[in-house]
């Protein structure tokens, strides 16, 4: 088989012309790629250190770092392709179409994901807080990217999508550390108010779980035909609030009885 020398020469000429025309762009693209990967590596180390200094949630740090690195690498590859001269029109349309389809299919999941990131960054509540959300009251046991697990006080594990927690009202009942305990009791007009106040103060002073600050408040809240109501506001620690309330009410009832203060329904 005889090889046509003219065809070979033309082939080599085309390669030479291509190298002359595209060679500098290819070399520049390779250089940009190498330098870009090096800079991305440095930036990833810096971002990890910055997140550590800002006390970003440990479960969120690896994810955010990976997301940043992948995004920067994709942008770098697209930039290199532009420098080399590769047309991206079809690729852009294809990626855009796939992105729209994925967004429509995963809209709820993506919303939960975005909400989870916001919760972990902004920290409206943290693990161990007692919250009221979606009609559930309990302790936050785990905050995941897509959902949050709340353990109710009657020992049920409730899984709440993060989108529900970021778009609706959340009551964090333990974030401030203390809560006000409100008690209201009705007495007959035959019982002196000063006698009631004395028993109330005695109970608060003897009950170790009551806090001295903020100050307690005792007063007549309602006047009725059959008697009057006395309200008391005292402050206790937020954690264990219900246990404290039950114990205090039991102690108050005992002290009222021992102090000769008759409660409604008590026998003469």
What does this protein look like?
The chain folds into three domains: 7-86; 122-172, SH3 type barrels, CATH 2.30.30; 178-258, 2-Layer Sandwich (Alpha-Beta Plaits). The chain has seven helices and eight strands. The chain has helices at residues 5-53, 61-84, 89-105, 107-122, 162-167, 193-206, 241-258; strands at residues 130-133, 136-143, 147-152, 157-161, 171-172, 178-187, 217-224, 227-237. Helix 1 runs antiparallel to helix 2 (61-84) and helix 6 (193-206) crosses helix 7 (241-258). The longest helix is centred in the N-terminal third of the chain and has 49 residues, at 5-53.
Find the CATH topology of the largest domain. Alpha-Beta Plaits
Distance between the termini: 127 Å
Strand order of the largest sheet: 4-3-2-1-5
Instruction: Assess the beta-strand content as a share of residues.
Output: 15-25%
Number of strands: 8
- What level of helicity do the residues show? 40-55%
Number of helices: 7
Q: Look at the structure and give the mean pLDDT.
A: 81
